[in-house]
Amino acid sequence: xxxxxxxxxxxxxxxxxxxxxxxxxxxxxxxxxxxxxxxxxxxxxxxxxxxxxxxxxxxxxxxxxxxxxxxxxxxxxxxxxxxxxxxxxxxxxxxxxxxxxxxxxxxxxxxxxxxxxxxxxxxxxxxxxxxxxxxxxxxxxxxxxxxxxxxxxxxxxxxxxxxxxxxxxxxxxxxxxxxxxxxxxxxxxxxxxxxxxxxxxxxxxxxxxxxxxxxxxxxxxxxxxxxxxxxxxxxxxxxxxxxxxxxxxxxxxxxxxxxxxxxxxxxxxxxxxxxxxxxxxxxxxxxxxxxxxxxxxxxxxxxxxxxxxxxxxxxxxxxxxxxxxxxxxxxxx
Length: 333
Hints:
Blueprint: E1 17-23, H1 29-46, E2 51-56, E3 62-64, E4 70-72, E5 85-89, H2 94-97, H3 100-111, E6 115-119, H4 123-128, E7 136-137, H5 144-150, E8 155-156, E9 161-164, E10 167-170, H6 175-188, H7 190-199, H8 216-220, H9 225-236, H10 244-250, H11 255-266, H12 270-288, H13 293-299, H14 305-316, H15 320-332
Parallel strand pairs: 1-2, 1-5, 5-6, 6-10, 7-8
Antiparallel strand pairs: 3-4, 9-10
């Protein structure tokens, strides 16, 4: 017979805290499953009903996530109890999923005092509803560029999750576990949260001080402090690119030494690497925002749309205008 888990003694006899998951079309299954399983396991290891949850969404029938699985919903976007916690679950094409009915419902519930969280890309939905103005927030790293361009009143961080008053955002994926463990610890203590983590085989619990992206050495696969420093400077100066001469000077190298360093470790010149970073940022903005092609070009350090278009075509084998058109066609379907 399998061993029962060690039960955690929790002093609790009140009303369960209720979480309401709002599943948006094309939501990410992992961020939802990670959150709801954390709550289920908290009940399991405590032997008490600490948490309840329900699953709702626009239309009240079903919601299909980005991997094609479909979930039956408990209800439409109904009025909730004041002490419910709303967890908006986003995923791909979150702009299309952020409809007027969703925004109106979210604003109404927020006015009534609800705690509102945006998991994965749903931070975009919270921001569109005006719920993050003047707040700190995070969103999946892939959506950071477009989010920063669109929502200037939000202080965007690269944290795994952010709790700012009654507004919560996460970076997506397993960040849901980190958030739920934090909430469980706040509600019922560290011992219960650690026991839930053990059940999940989750050995590296992150806090809101941890960042979501891998370090530059890990990401580029090279542990070279000067190379990492130059790449960091490039990533932080996309709109106003820095010349290779100044980049080299900053790390006490000659331009030729920097050139050799990049070719040795990254198989391309510093100029080429920098261009690829800028084009990658441009592609994110084209795919995820309504910014004009001209404004995207300027935001990524290109002096003219024609130069931008030429570089973009050379790298992606299509023009910025066609890329935007392809994305618009996808959104329409």
